[in-house]
Give the backbone structure.
Amino acid sequence: MLRPAALGTGVIAGGSVRTVLELAGVVNGMGKELGSKNPLNNARAVIEAVSQMKQFKEVSEKRGIPMEVLWQ
């Protein structure tokens, strides 16, 4: 499970989740390993999740609303 964190929080996660998030360049985020305790499977799941992340601009264009509305 991955969630955004408040500015200045840093990466709060354990094991392979923290490693992958830091290597991906995530500055503020929280992660929790649910289910498998296998570090390789967890790392693969985080890589898949990070690859599916979208920018605010992409989401606003897809929904057809201004970016300022997404920030509220």
Q: What stands out?
A: Residues 39-51 form the longest helix (13 residues). The helical segments are 15-24, 39-51, 56-63, 67-71. The mean pLDDT is 91.
